Task: inverse folding
């Protein structure tokens, strides 16, 4: 009974803390890390009109973390007047990616078909990545809305990875690994990514070895990127809640250990 | 006889796909493209198989009366989404996109967010420094938690550096060891399948 009651108090405490943090409207400073700056520099340094393939390799469950990451990167790319080609290797990422691109494009007055296009979802990610290396039009004969590939100006001259400045994988799992293992290793395409915080350590070895060119990680990375593009969004907004939750967890760990050691000492002395 | 045919096909495809990787000849590229297209088609059928299996299993369970309301909702969702997509299309402002954004995405995010509550509870109950390795793990976790929040830097200049060191040295070393192990394991298993030593994929028996 005590276990259940204390668990409920812990849950309530977290809820109240996050609600207060989100409601307070305080913006915390998030100094830009070298990793996030590398990704910013990559997009910034590309010549205007460069083609970027944006792959939404995530599910709907990670949307609160993925949306700020995607928004920040898309806003930067559209602001730099790059040509964006969207796609998804997970079915759930398809509609989310389409909507994110549409919203970011509208903010910068970009036109569908001319400045950006959305190819939609392709099943079996390894086959899709390899197939695009042979021919992107053959892999996606039509876009997400059913229009022929050749009819979209944004896709003019884009036949294989050789015509793409880089692949930007926005992921909440290990799909970016396949971009590196098949897209990068087989066809030499440059891979950059925006991933959830839980996946950062998974990709650290690839980043260190140069197989991945640059990476932005988690809500913290999104907040840093928003500072770089001077456009606050969900990353900055969410950082206060994330900070409060992290501190809450640290306090709970401390309390849990305190009670554990007190109980142990009591047991030893009795 | 059937098993031998399957083994020969597996061996043939294995060798051809391995060899084409190193060739830029148009024939090799054509073979690669064709095989990749078939791969995607087979996968699409596997998806269809999953849908049919899900449908049949739920109908059976509804007949038996177990979790009936939940299963009915599942089936309505399964049938409604493709119908809505076909009738109302999938572009901006379509009912399909509306349902996805306002029903499916919030529900999945909510379920995922519940993890935070369980992590908070588990941190109080389970994360104890019972031994030296557990204490080291605990210390590393606290450092990473602080560094990923907005107060890590302002609290102390060395905190982000210490967290980065954990990520880039011990954590990455362990990660690399796992990755190399997986790579060697995949290579060995692939070779065993191609040459016909590993035959479990054919189904049980000898």
Result:
């Amino acid at each position: 009974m005590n276990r259940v009651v204390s668990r409920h108090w812990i849950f309530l405490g977290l809820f109240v803390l996050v609600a207060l943090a989100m409601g307070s409207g305080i913006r915390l400073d998030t100094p830009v890390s070298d990793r996030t700056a590398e990704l910013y520099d990559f997009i910034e340094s590309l010549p205007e009109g460069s083609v970027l393939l944006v792959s939404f390799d995530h599910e709907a469950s990670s949307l609160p973390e993925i949306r700020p990451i995607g928004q920040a990167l898309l806003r930067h790319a559209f602001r730099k007047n790059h040509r964006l080609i969207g796609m998804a290797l997970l079915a759930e990422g398809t509609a989310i990616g389409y909507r994110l691109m549409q919203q970011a494009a509208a903010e910068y007055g970009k036109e569908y078909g001319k400045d950006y296009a959305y190819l939609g979802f392709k099943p079996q990610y390894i086959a899709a990545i390899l197939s695009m290396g042979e021919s992107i039009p053959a892999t996606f004969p039509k876009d997400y809305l059913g229009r022929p590939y050749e009819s979209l100006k944004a896709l003019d001259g884009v036949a294989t990875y050789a015509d793409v400045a880089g692949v930007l994988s926005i992921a909440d799992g290990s799909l970016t690994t396949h971009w590196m293992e098949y897209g990068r290793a087989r066809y030499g395409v440059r891979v950059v990514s925006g991933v959830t915080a839980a996946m950062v350590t998974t990709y650290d070895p690839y980043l260190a070895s140069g197989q991945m060119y640059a990476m932005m990680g988690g809500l913290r990375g999104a907040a840093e990127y928003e500072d770089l593009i001077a456009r606050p969004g969900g990353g900055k907004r969410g950082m206060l809640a994330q900070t409060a939750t992290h501190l809450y967890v640290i306090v709970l760990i401390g309390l849990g250990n305190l009670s554990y050691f007190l109980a142990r000492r009591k047991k030893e002395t009795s | 006889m059937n098993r031998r045919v399957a083994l020969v096909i597996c061996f043939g495809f294995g060798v051809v796909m391995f060899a084409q990787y190193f060739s830029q000849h148009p024939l090799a590229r054509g073979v690669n493209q064709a095989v990749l297209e078939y791969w995607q088609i087979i996968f699409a059928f596997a998806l269809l198989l999953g849908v049919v299996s899900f449908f049949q299993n739920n109908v059976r369970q509804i007949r038996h009366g177990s979790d009936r309301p939940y299963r009915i909702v599942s089936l309505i969702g399964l049938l409604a989404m493709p119908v809505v997509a076909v009738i109302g299309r999938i572009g901006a402002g379509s009912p399909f996109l509306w349902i996805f954004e306002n029903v499916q995405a919030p529900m999945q995010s909510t379920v995922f967010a519940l993890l935070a509550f369980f992590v908070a509870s588990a941190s109080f109950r389970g994360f104890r420094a019972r031994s030296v390795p557990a204490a080291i793990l605990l210390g590393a976790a606290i450092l990473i938690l602080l560094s990923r929040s907005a107060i890590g830097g302002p609290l102390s200049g060395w905190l982000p550096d210490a967290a980065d060191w954990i990520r880039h040295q011990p954590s990455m070393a362990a990660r690399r060891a796992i990755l190399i192990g997986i790579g060697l394991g995949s290579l060995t298993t692939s070779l065993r399948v191609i040459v016909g030593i590993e035959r479990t994929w054919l189904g049980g028996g000898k």
